[in-house]
Amino acid sequence: MSGTWMTTRAWLLMLPLLVVMVAVIGWPLVDTIGLSFTDARLVGTGGDFVGIDNYTNMLSSPNFSRTLITTTLFAVISVAAEMVIGVLAALLLNQEFKGRAILRALMILPWALPTVVNATLWRLIYNPEYGALNAALTQLHLIDAYRSWLGEPGTALAALIVADCWKNFPLVALIALAALQAVPRDITAASLVDGAGPFNRFRFVILPYLAGPLMVALVLRTIEAFKVFDIIWVMTRGGPANSTRTLSILVYQEAFSFQRAGSGASLALIVTLLVTVLAVAYAALVRKTAGSAA
Amino acid sequence: MERRSPAFTVFIYACALLLAAIILAPIAWLFIMSISPAADLAAKPLRWWPQAVDLSRYRQLLSTAENSAGAAFTSSLRNSLEISGMATLAALALAIPAGWAVSRTPAIGWSLSMVIATYMLPPVALAVPLYMGLSHLGLLNNVFGLALVYLTILAPFTTWLMKSGFDSIPREIEAAAMIDGAGLLQTWRIITLPLAAPVMATSALFAVLLAWDEFFYALLFTSDQRAKTLTVAIADLAGGRVSDYGLIATAGVLAALPPVLIGLVMQRALISGLTSGGVKG
Q1: B195, part of any domain
Q2: How many CB atoms neighbour CB A162 within 10 A?
Q3: B107 touches A: beta carbon within 8 Å
Q4: Pair (B18, B78) in one structural domain
Q5: Same domain for B156 and B39?
Q6: Which of A116, A213, B223, B273 has the fewest CB neighbours in a 10 Å radius?
Q7: How far apart are CA B101 and CA B245, in angstroms?
Q8: Does residue B213 belong to any structural domain of this protein?
Q9: Inter-chain contact B252–A170, Cβ cutoff 8 Å?
């Protein structure tokens, strides 16, 4: 069979997917770009062309810079914590002990729990009047009076980060564990014979095997953390006093609560650009890590 | 195997217990809340263990009596099942031919890379045109409309999984069948698809989990019992004026049950699917 026919056939098989992707992703994206240069409302007429006004207004608004900082804080702290706790859990699960198989099976639970159920669960735990956290801390005499963990700007973001970490660190742990199990036994044995201490063994023998998979996990988690919506919407809706408002929440409010489709579209594209830059920078880093490990 | 000192062994078991507690405590508490009498949950100091097991909320949520909390819950359960099922079937129907094509003809691989790159797009970047488009087609607040939108998430992911699945089936087997005179469809039916069955099952389960978990589009594009999904129904309960927190917990337990069971039963396949991209680097 000729190469051209093979390629044509491949395109024909690819076609249904591409058509659907253009319809549900390509066209909406192009339309969002068009909307971002207009003052269109969500309902009603198309709106008038306003040039780059939406972008300049958005980028100069204090709402945007504050939201960008909140999003960055959320993403950096929760992803960093997930990576550290995840690797520690993987190192533990790579040891031999009774019950290891059961513990490894349990790790799938937080990952499988729907995000909205996770958010609801933690909202109940943090409840200011009847929540388990208040009850536990009071009964342990760590606090005197019940607090509103999600109701105070000082603690709300931290409380969200804990809930997000709890759901996502097991995934990092499972990825890291799979990588650890690929480390050849004779290499760790040889490093022992050579007298490497536990820290050096981790740094020079084990970490090179972990670097590639962990970088991939880092990229995926960071992109998701930057796009975060669900957990925040269910737990705080961006409050109190906008202290947990992330970029996706701000776009939602702009485009759907205030029905300013044009300005919401411009903000959505700014977020898209930020995520893309982040992903491209990370991808370069992944390639570099993979290159040095090989 | 390295010899461990007794102190190190104790340390390992202590860490294992701590990890188990961190994982289990919140889940256990969700379940305990769902079976505790309301008075126990409002007691100060809080009762950590119910005085009597109260299963009334499960009966309440699973009843279909009209205008009850159960009616809203069961309809959202049905919508979630329908939407996840339809979206998964459609995603697989697109992913199987496309994944095979890219696997066997690497020259067109860049098109799949572009499809996968859409993962970076935040859903908010598509939401306004999708809202207007669905509204135009009369598909707002409609299970078909939402299932269609879910293809934005499900189709790229399942295609990528199917492609790596087909990669591990030697093309020589297919070539042998073709030399014996089998056409493409026959080769697929006899050789390729049976060999790819485990990957298809994994992809389908991943797709179901993704659709079951989705919240953002469901929140935007559905408004009542005709299309509201479980995630939206639970967010409504959690954000509303429900005075019985046990009822919210019960809805959470019921919504979590299918994905958690899938996760536990399919553990090995899910983990290898999750890590295949990661470990290959």
Answers
A1: yes
A2: 16
A3: yes
A4: no
A5: no
A6: B223
A7: 51
A8: yes
A9: no
Q: What angle do CA A91, A92, A95 make, to 5 degrees?
A: 95
Q: Choose the closest CB to B130 out of A28, A103, A111.
A: A28
Summarised one tens digit per residue, pLDDT across range B207-247 is 999 999 999 999 999 999 999 999 999 999 988 877 788 99
Residue in chain A closest to B133 (alpha carbons) equals: A28
Task: Report d(CA B151, CA A63) in Å as an integer.
Answer: 33
- Token pair 């969500």 is found at A42
Based on the fold, state whether residues B132 and B210 are members of the same structural domain. yes
Looking at the whole model, is its pTM more than 0.80? Answer: yes
CB contact under 8 A, B124 and A127: no
pLDDT (tens digit per residue) in B21-72: 999 999 999 999 999 998 888 888 888 988 889 999 999 898 877 777 788 8
Chain A neighbors of B257, CB-CB under 8 A: none
The one-letter amino acid at A44: G
> pLDDT per residue over B69-87, tens digit each?
788 899 999 999 999 999 9
| B245 in contact with A, Cβ within 8 Å | yes
Nearest to A7 among B33, B108, B118 (CB): B108
Other C-beta atoms within 10 Å of B3: how many?
5
Whether B104 and B145 share a structural domain: yes
* Digit-coded pLDDT (tens) for B111-120: 999 999 898 8
* DSSP per-residue string spanning chain B: -----HHHHHHHHHHHHHHHHHHHHHHHHHHHHHHS-HHHHH-SSPPSS-SS---HHHHHHH---TTSHHHHHHHHHHHHHHHHHHHHHHHHHHHHHHHHHHHH-GGGHHHHHHHHHGGGS-THHHHHHHHHHHHHHT-TT-HHHHHHHHHHHHHHHHHHHHHHHHHTS-HHHHHHHHHTT--HHHHIIIIIHHHHHHHHHHHHHHHHHHHHH--HHHHHH--STTT--HHHHHHHHHHTT---HHHHHHHHHHHHHHHHHHHHHTHHHHHHHHHHHHHH-
Give me the domain span that covers residue B46: 1-54
Q: Token digits for B210?
A: 């993704």
Distance from C-alpha of B120 to C-alpha of A221, rounded to nearest angstrom: 11
CA nearest to A214, candidates A100, A79, A106: A79
Interface pTM (ipTM) of the complex? 0.92
Q: Are residues B87 and B174 in the same domain?
A: yes
Cα separation values, B87 from A21, B67, B178, B206, B211, Å: 14, 29, 33, 12, 7
Domain spans of chain A, in order of start: 68-293
> Closest partner residue to B128 among A14, A212, A261, by Cβ?
A261
CATH class of A68-293: mainly alpha
Residues B198, B224 within the same domain:
yes
Lowest mean pLDDT among A89-93, A245-249, B179-183: B179-183
A106 contacts chain B (CB < 8 A): yes
On whether any CB of chain A is under 8 Å from the CB of B38, the answer is no
B265 and B164: one domain? yes
B150 is a domain residue: yes
Residue A48 to residue A140: CA distance in whole angstroms: 61
